[in-house]
Amino acid sequence: MPKHMWTNALLASAAIAIAGCGGDQLNISGPHYVSDIAVPNIKAGVNFSFDIGVVSGSRYFFTDRNNASLDQIDIPSKTFVKAIQGTGPLAFTGLGPGPNSQAGPDGATAVGNFIYVGDVNTVKVVDPAVGAVTSKITVSATGVRADEGCLDPTHGIFMISSPEETPPFATFINTSTQTVVAKVTFTDLAGKPTAGLEACRYDAASDNFYVNVDGSTANPHGELVKLPGASIRAIPNGGTQNYTTLSGVAMYPEGNCDPTGLALGPGSDIAVGCREGTTGAPLLMQIFNRSNGALVASLNAGGGDQLEYDAPTNRYYNAASRWTSSGNASTNGACSAASPCTPVLTIVDAGNRSVVARLNTGNNAHSIAIDPATGLIFVPYSSATSPAGCPGCAANGFVNGGVSVFAAK
To answer: How far apart are CA 56 and CA 116, in angstroms?
Structure first.
């Protein structure tokens, strides 16, 4: 087992015993690397384009553009099960010739026994029991993706963002009928389209949707928007309304953040992952009071995309693909040979709002999911040399690309 997997760990209260190569087995206390899982057609030199992951039951699912599939991994055995690919009109777009905005699949959300998957123009509905895409829900016809989503299980409403539309909009879907019931557009108070939309979450306790907005006129580097569920449900069936006109809407400034991930924490906390595009800016995770938007903590723990909270460990897990050795953003926030990144899995104690550990991860490892039952953490990554910008990835043992598995404790 590669000893480097723990070289970047910062443990607050537990010591780590490092296992060396050759299968020596020592007791390990604290978060640690477990194993790697190979993905079909992903190998050294391949740029692995993946996106959001989710745990549902005893399986981990994540979106895979190289194979135009939703990939399925069995959690107890830590083995690859199947690349679920649709056919005909139910096929995923895949990489395609254009940018990420025209590629898919993208976001993945567990909705009852199904997985709702964002794709170009559509949400694809996957039935894991049969290992197939069973239907699709059309949200636009412009050739750009429906990206990340979140579920209100109480009222059976699924929200998914289309960040590259002009203006960006969110689509709300009745999960019983699999039909679009409303849309919310994002033109700001100055009459300008917002810069885009990122992760969203639904808080059942307050009946609010929350979504990260990339930027508005008032908050050019990001705002956290609260969308009251009652106001969404009040939109006439099939209707469209702008977010600024919704009753009870609130916009909370996020500072110089350029937000990505979002996670509901304990109490009234909500954590925002920042991926600053300002060269040299501190890479932050911001924790807000979700009832009033007050900033309660700002940690040097950003640079990621997907951000998850795990209740059993009371910790946040951030797939910080753009973390750097200095903790500050690389040139324009992007990884390159001239301005490299050092990807890590950042773990934050949600109780005292402090960094617990940083574990080395592979190239462009920006997606994460944790199984609350086993404490296993799943982090896809690309090969060490593609995309450029991770000179330490090969030395750290992340060469071929695939899915790395960590344990929370």
So the answer is: 12
Residue range 389-408, pLDDT digits in tens: 999 999 999 999 999 999 99
Give 242's strand partners: 185
Amino acid occupying residue 358: R
For residue 324, the tally of other CB atoms under 10 A from its CB is 19
DSSP state of 17: P
Looking at this protein, which amino acid is placed at residue 55?
V
Q: In the beta sheet, which residues pair with residue 24?
A: none
Taken in order of first residue, the domains within the chain and their CATH numbers are 55-340 (2.130.10.10)
How far, in whole angstroms, is CA 22 from its chain's centroid?
Answer: 34
Residues 311/346, Cβ–Cβ less than 8 Å: no
Per-residue pLDDT band for 22 (boundaries 50, 70, 90) equals very low
DSSP for 179-223?
Answer: EEEEEEE-B-TTS-B-S-EEEEEEETTTTEEEEEES--SS-TT-E
What mean pLDDT comes out for the span 234-249?
98
316 vs 217: CA distance, rounded Å: 30
Model pTM above 0.90: yes
Contact between residue 111 and residue 175 where contact means Cβ atoms under 8 Å apart: yes
Distance CA 63, CA 367 (A): 10
Q: What angle do CA 381, 68, 273 make, to 5 degrees?
A: 40
Q: How far is CA 328 from CA 273, 333, 363, 376, 388, in A?
A: 14, 9, 18, 29, 18
Rg (CA), the chain: 20
Torsion of CA 134, 138, 142, 147, to 10 degrees: -70
3-class secondary structure, 332: helix
